Amino acid sequence: MRVERSMHPGWLSNAYLVWDEGTREAFFVDSGAPLDPLAATVERKRLDVRRLLTTHGHHDHVAGDDELAGRYGVRSERSAPGVEAIATPGHSDDHLVFVLDGLCFSGDLLFRDAVGGGPDAGVIRDSVLRVLELPDETRVLPGHTEETTIARERAENPFVRYWLGEAAAIDERVRVAGEDAVLLVWSPDYDGNGKALVRFADGREAIVGGSRVER
C-alpha cells in the first residue's frame, strides 16, 4: 500500500490518502487537512476513491468531509474490507484505530512521544496498550504531525514506559485548573505545550495538555 499525507498548518492535523498500486483503489483516512494536494495525487495516478474512514468525530479530523463527498461521493465510514478497525476509546468515545498492511492510523490515540488527552487515563492506557500489541515494525500514522513506529514508542514514549513499568513516576505536586494534583508523566507533544498524566487527590488520573499544569 502507498500513503500520502497532508497536514493542516494551524491544527497540525493529518489527512491521509491510501491506495493499492495494483488495483488503483484508494481511500482517505480523516479529512482535517488541505485536500487539494491529495486530490492532485488521485488525478495524477488515476485512482479510484472508494471510501473515507474516520478515526473520530472531532472537528480537526472531519472538517473536509463535505469536500470529499462532493469530489468523490464518499461519506464517513467506520469499517472497510481488508482494514482492521480497533475500538480505542479514551480521547473520544467513538475513537477507532485502523490497521492494514503494516500501517496503523492511530488518530489521536498514539503520537510520537505522547498520547491523546482525556479525563480517564485508565481507558486511554488500555487502548494504547492494545495497539502496542502490533508488530514492532508497524508504521504509526497519527492524527497530528510526524509518523513513528510501534517499536519506537514502546522504547521511548514516556507514557508507554511508565505504563509498562520501565520508568518511575515524576511524583511532583502541581495544580491543574486550580485543583491539587500529582504529576506522574510529562512528555513533549505535537503542539509544543507538552502533555501530562496527573493524579488528583480523589485518585482520578487524567491526561491533560501541558498548558493546564502549574508546576
Could you characterize what this model shows?
This protein is an alpha+beta fold and 215 residues long. The chain has a domain at 1-81: Metallo-beta-lactamase, Chain A (4-Layer Sandwich), CATH 3.60.15. It is 21% helix and 35% strand. It is built from 6 helices and 17 strands. The chain has helices at residues 36-44, 59-62, 65-72, 121-131, 150-156, 158-163, and strands at residues 2-7, 14-19, 25-29, 48-53, 76-77, 84-87, 96-100, 103-107, 110-111, 114-115, 139-142, 148-149, 172-176, 179-187, 195-200, 205-209, 213-214. It has a 5-stranded mixed beta sheet with strand order 1-2-3-4-5, with helices on one face. The chain is elongated. It starts with a strand and ends with a strand. 39% of the residues are buried.
